[in-house]
């Protein structure tokens, strides 16, 4: 038996992964994964759109080879990104990606009812989140509506916002977005006052090698020294690559197995090949030698791969992760204003790829430490998110979390340079303001472009959005004083505001996200999801009503035939009419469930039930009489 939470407003932690997603909950007994009805912890981040509806998770992944065109995987790679951002991924995404409003990446899949259907990555992710929400609700026995969701440390503002929007579409109140490595550190109870272990300030590394992304984070933890004190989790530096993961290992094995470029294969074959390559990879984690033996359309593939050969194939990826580790270490030194990187006391291993023996060896050698693997590398992020959720909802005391901003944020100035307002690795929440002015006499409006990145010129940075400040009174160039304020909230989401000081006038302005959904779109999707929820509920009711009415009609009908001669004429006519009415509802509902009003259907059933009371009495009396022993 799982314990039911005391609060009706349980907040869960969600690891919304590129490959796999999980949901966890933390109560007084500590964090635990909330599995599905079959006890499975991982929900593959795979969604299929069928004529009959949406299939999510294991079912979608396991039958992906049969539905290559309508199955969506790795959607996280497209979250909050433009079509151009996603370009390098396109060759490995076996569905078509098109440009939506504002150049956003959207997914286009064929539909049975003609014309392709286009979805935003947020909508697809929302299906995964909804499945997790339901799984959690079933496991806890209450309706879960609040969540902490994790994202890779390198996610920019648009990607974080997109994740929040996906939560909203799924009917979740996303109370915090947390970096995955930070959650992993929390799962180990480091400094959160959960472990009971006493230690001073320490610096740790979180090495996360997942299916689609690699992240390395250097955290400084200052644990609470006494009851009721606050522990500090501070991210000193983050580095990573959003295009480096277990998928790359799979692709190497795919090429090895095929002996040629997998791109030339039809979709279904590519999926099969990918599945077989991954299975081979798993076997190579366990043994020194592994075989593959499977059939593609019109072609049989057999191969024997040694671990040594496999390690050669993936060595460049592992090497790259270590280069990124070096980068993060020197960033951490800079943050601490020290000449050398701080000594690392722990390396926490996160992500399925860290099961690979080569990865463990390489990381151990690099940091000169035995990697930390006590908590399942698949589950550690979700468990930490649950710990964070419980801290935020006041169930776990004594921990405060400080994250850093991964990339600098600034405004484009005349000439195309970027004035950085908030620099990389500042802790959140962060606030900064700067004064700007006009460059032309009598200028009454200014356009401000917001950029993210480390380079000096706007052209080399990523443009997050732009806004216009209008209604400035005409003044000579350089006289208006425009104060621009950047505020990065604790979820890492950027809010920009501005006002002109001389005129005292605050013009309304809005940052139009370049690669996110507009507010209107999110509102619409949220409304639609409610509408769908209502529709689903109605359908459910009608289906139940059909089944129950049929039982009633049969039961009452049988007795009516047997005993109608005993009933009073009035009751007989009444009963007959009501049976016909309900029969008609059943007939209509079976043809088209949407054509009947579930309330009227329900009323018709109740009226028949009520009218049949007399028949039931007669029936009972008669059967009693029949069962009397004859003397
Ligand atoms: P993400 O965080 O990107 O969703 P995960 O942490 O779930 O990813 O890691 C998924 C990756 O880990 C996949 O590429 C998967 O093949 C790989 N993986 C899982 N288990 C193993 C294993 N035993 N050996 C090697 N790779 C594994
Ligand atoms: Mg992950």
Notes on the protein architecture:
- This protein is an alpha+beta fold and 631 residues long.
- It has 14 helices and 27 strands.
- The strands form seven sheets. Strands 1, 2, 3, 4, 11 and 12 form a six-stranded mixed beta sheet that branches. A five-stranded mixed beta sheet has the order 18-13-14-15-19, sandwiched between helices. Strands 21-20-23-24-27 form a five-stranded antiparallel beta sheet, with no helix packed on it.
- Strand 5 and strand 6 (54-56) form a beta hairpin.
- Helix 5 packs across helix 10 (380-392), helix 6 packs across helix 7 (267-286) and helix 11 crosses helix 14 (613-627).
- The longest helix is centred in the last third of the chain and has 45 residues, at 519-563.
- The chain binds adenosine-5'-diphosphate and magnesium ion (MG).
Q: And the CATH topology of the largest domain?
A: Nucleotidyltransferase, domain 5
Indicate the overall shape.
globular
Can you name the CATH architecture of the largest domain?
A: 2-Layer Sandwich
| Rg calculated over all Cα atoms | 30 Å
Question: What's the count of strands?
Answer: 27
Bound molecules: adenosine-5'-diphosphate, magnesium ion
Strand content is: 15-25%
| Spatial separation of the terminal alpha carbons | 56 Å
- Low-confidence segments, ≥5 residues, pLDDT <50? 1-7, 508-516
Q: Could you describe the largest sheet, including whether it forms a barrel?
A: 6 strands, mixed
Integer average pLDDT: 83
CATH homologous superfamily annotation of the largest domain: ATPase, nucleotide binding domain
Q: Which structural class should the secondary elements be placed in?
A: alpha+beta
Please count the helical segments.
Answer: 14
Helix content: 25-40%
CATH class of the largest domain: Alpha Beta
Number of domains: 3
């Amino acid at each position: 038996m799982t314990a039911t939470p005391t609060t009706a407003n349980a907040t869960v932690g969600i690891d919304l992964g590129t490959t796999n997603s999980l949901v966890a909950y933390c109560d007084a007994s500590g964090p635990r994964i909330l599995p599905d009805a079959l006890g499975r912890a991982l929900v593959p981040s795979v969604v299929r759109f069928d004529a009959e509806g949406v299939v999510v998770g294991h079912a979608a992944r396991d039958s992906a080879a049969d539905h290559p065109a309508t199955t969506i995987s790795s959607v996280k790679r497209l979250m909050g990104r433009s079509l151009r951002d996603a370009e390098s991924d396109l060759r490995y995404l076996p569905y078509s990606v098109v440009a939506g409003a504002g150049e956003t990446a959207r997914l286009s899949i064929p539909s049975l009812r003609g014309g392709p259907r286009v979805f935003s990555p947020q909508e697809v992710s929302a299906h995964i989140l909804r499945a997790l929400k339901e799984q959690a609700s079933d496991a806890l026995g209450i309706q879960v509506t609040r969540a902490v969701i994790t994202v890779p440390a390198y996610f920019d503002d648009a990607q974080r916002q997109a994740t929040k929007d996906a939560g909203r579409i799924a009917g979740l109140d996303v109370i915090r977005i947390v970096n995955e490595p930070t959650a992993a550190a929390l799962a180990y109870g480091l400094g959160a006052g959960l472990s009971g272990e006493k230690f001073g300030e320490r610096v740790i590394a979180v090495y996360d090698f997942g299916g689609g992304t690699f992240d390395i984070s250097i955290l400084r933890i200052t644990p609470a020294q006494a009851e009721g004190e606050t522990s500090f989790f501070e991210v000193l530096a983050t580095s990573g690559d959003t295009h480096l993961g277990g998928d790359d290992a799979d692709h190497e094995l795919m090429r090895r197995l095929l002996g040629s470029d997998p791109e030339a294969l039809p979709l279904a074959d590519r999926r099969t090949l990918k599945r077989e390559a991954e299975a081979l990879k798993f076997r190579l984690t366990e043994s020194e030698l592994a075989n593959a033996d499977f059939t593609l359309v019109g072609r049989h593939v057999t191969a024997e791969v040694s671990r040594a050969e496999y390690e050669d194939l993936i060595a460049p990826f592992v090497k790259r992760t270590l280069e990124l580790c070096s980068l993060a270490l020197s960033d951490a030194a800079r943050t601490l204003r020290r000449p050398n990187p701080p000594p690392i006391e722990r390396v926490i291993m996160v992500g399925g790829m860290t099961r690979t023996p080569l990865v463990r060896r390489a990381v151990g050698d690099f940091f000169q430490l035995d990697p930390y693997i006590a908590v399942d590398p698949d589950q550690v992020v979700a468990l930490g998110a649950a710990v964070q959720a419980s801290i935020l909802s006041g169930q776990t005391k004594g921990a405060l979390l400080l994250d850093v901003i991964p990339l600098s944020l600034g405004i484009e100035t005349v000439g195309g340079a970027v004035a950085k307002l908030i620099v990389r690795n500042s802790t959140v929440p962060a606030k900064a303001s700067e004064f700007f002015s006009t460059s032309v006499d009598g200028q009454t409006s200014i356009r401000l472009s917001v950029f993210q990145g480390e380079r000096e010129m706007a052209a080399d940075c990523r443009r997050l959005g732009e806004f216009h400040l209008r209604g400035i009174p005409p003044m000579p160039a350089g006289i208006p004083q425009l104060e621009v304020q950047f505020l990065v909230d604790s979820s890492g989401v950027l809010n920009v505001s501005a006002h002109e000081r001389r005129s005292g006038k605050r013009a309304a302005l809005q940052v139009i996200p370049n690669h996110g959904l507009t507010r209107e779109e999110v509102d619409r999707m949220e409304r639609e999801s409610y509408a769908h929820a209502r529709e689903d509920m109605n359908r459910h009711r009608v289906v139940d009503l059909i089944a129950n009415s049929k039982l009633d009609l049969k039961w009452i009908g049988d007795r009516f035939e047997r005993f109608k001669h005993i009933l009073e004429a009035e009751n007989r006519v009444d009963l007959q009419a009501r049976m016909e009415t309900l029969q008609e509802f059943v007939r209509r509902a079976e043809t088209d469930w949407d054509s009947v009003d579930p309330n009227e259907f329900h009323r018709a059933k109740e009226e028949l039930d009520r009218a049949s009371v007399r028949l039931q009495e007669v029936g009972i009396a008669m059967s009693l009489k029949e069962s009397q022993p004859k003397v």
